[in-house]
Amino acid sequence: MIDIFDAKTIWTIAHLLGVAIGAGGAYLGDVLFLSSVRDGVISHTEFSFLKRTGLFVWLGVGILTLSGAGLFFLDPSYYLGSSKFLAKVSIVVVIVINGVVFHLVHFKMLQRLIGIELKTSQEFRRTSATLFASGAVSVISWTSALILGSLRSLPFSVSEILSVYGILIGIGIVMAMLFRKRFLSR
Questions:
Q1: Beta bridge partners of 114
Q2: Is the pLDDT of residue 1 over 50?
């Protein structure tokens, strides 16, 4: 019998599974949020679905982190010398920090606003800029991590990769603010 499942293959499969679950949960959560606010009010059911997608994001992050550590410890010197790996780790740290803020701050705010007209809520008007920015950071970060993970190598330094990532984050936040302005003025 041929041994097709070595340690690297097993960790790689787990890593891909973590990315699929985490990114899928994040993308679905963003789509659900946008469709939930379309009518200007978040219902109990919509909020419940948003919370469930958050669980998938954290499950994905957990699998991604454990499997990433497993891959790293198979060849630490290779990964420490890889600008792609170091940039991806930095982006995953942003994903985790953004996720913590989203779940500890934004979810609590959205829960308080269940059934309330969002555009007329002073709390929503005051705090929604960070909510929309957080959504943009989420989409761009998960997409960046996914793309970096898919590429074999990159001829760029960590600072070059993270500079492009920072520019994309900036563009995403500007777009999110334009969307927010349009939403609040409808």
A1: 42
A2: no
